Amino acid sequence: MFDPHMLQQDFPILSTPLKSGKKLIYLDNAATSQKPQVVIDAITQYYKRDNANVHRGIHELGDRSTRSWHEARKTIATFFGATPEELVMTRNTTEGLNMVAYSYGEACVREGDLILTTVMDHHSNQVPWQELARRKKARLEMIPVTREGMLDLEWLERKVKVEGEKVKIVAFPHVSNTLGTLNPVEKIVRLVRAFTKAVIALDAAQSAPHLLINFDRLGVDFMAVSAHKMLGPMGIGALFIRQSLLENVSPWLFGGGMIGEVTKERATFADDLEDRFTAGTPDVAGAVGWAAACEYLSKLDMKKVEQHDKELVNYTLEKLQAIPEVEIVGPVERVKRYEVRGKRCGSVAFLYKGVHAHDVAQVLDSEGVAVRSGHHCTMPLHAAFGWAATTRVSFNVYTSKEDIDVFVRALGKVKEVFEK
Ligand SMILES: Cc1ncc(COP(=O)(O)O)c(C=O)c1O
Question: What is the DSSP string of 123-134?
Fold first, then answer.
């Protein structure tokens, strides 16, 4: 049985009391998740036992480290339904999306072309496109968000029909980190492919911790993720690249490890994708830790992880809908039992009437409840809806319904404090 209370025991930080002596109720998982002991151990063991640089040393440790790196890459690729050849290690989702802009966009986008992203995207999936459009004198437009917090697919359909092959890149999030909206990837892919030859880049930062993802089946061309949001360490992530596109993607970081041959004048680059995009020493310990996180999640079974998230989202919506001062942002429909996937995933953000989000977060913090307040790196979305800031609770495998109860009780304090 999937029991978040049991899982909490795997995460040492969750049983470390706060300065106040209160128990930590960690509901800031969309910012970063906590790490289970198996991930901490995998990283420690790597440094204790196997540490050496990869691909370089002809000695036992060099061999062990290189093997650890390759095994970790294979585990991570398999977790996402991809092959190791399709996986480029990055520092995080942000770097992955920038890589698409530099490694692919730089060569394929020309003056007057159109790049599409969305109003609901994280700045990481907006600013790289703004910069690319500026460099290439291309146009950038953002798919609007409906009142209900969904992507306006009618707008998208009109746009791709009118612009056709002028559209070169379409980038969007699998799950919005503010609205919690779960976007219908396959439907968007079909729509874009019907009228354009654009490549499709998916930001899967917020879906990877909660959903069973199969890169191949999603049908996108690029997919970026971060390890730290899915129980892995900070400082490592991946960009998945569709096999048929590999020839069209150029390296964007240059130096040791990624070359074929170097003369005084120029260099050729490694044929092997993994080497070509790994300039300099990679984060082997990070990869080993991330692979341990993937194995931990696989053992839990991602279908159960997804079901657990669905229940938490429903439960939180139900509790918040009963509080008159609270206005939930994003889709408010609860997921029906028989639905495979609903309209949202991972988090619930809200406005509290008459109280700034930072004040709400501070009151919650005084009760041991860690949440995020602010614009969550989605300023254009906040501007579009006229919100100064929102408060967000977000979940992971160790989040229990009792944690939500503590949060809701703590929210009661907001009224007490601000009605005085
Ligand atoms: C939807 C989304 N995309 C991208 C990012 C950026 O992730 P990272 O900081 O790991 O690069 C985040 C981080 O919160 C996010 O929520």
Answer: GGGTHHHHHHHH
pLDDT > 90? residue 335: no
3-state secondary structure of 386: coil
Q: Which of 377, 392, 394, 395 to mutate to test the pocket of ligand 1 (most atoms within 8 A of CB)?
A: 377
Residues with catalytic roles: 377
Using the 8-state DSSP alphabet, how is residue 31 labeled?
T
| pLDDT of 338 | 60
Task: State yes or no: pLDDT of 135 exceeds 90.
Answer: yes
Encoding tokens for residue 21? 């002596």
**CB–CB of 344/312 below 8 Å?**
no
Contact 167, 159 (CB under 8 A): yes
Question: Could you identify the atom of ligand 1 that is nearest to the CA of residue 31?
Answer: 14
Q: Which residue has the tokens 């976007």?
A: 183
Domains of the chain, with CATH numbers? 4-30+302-418 (3.90.1150.10), 42-297 (3.40.640.10)
88 in helix, strand or coil?
Answer: strand
Over the stretch 168-180, which tens digit does the pLDDT of each residue have?
999 999 999 999 9
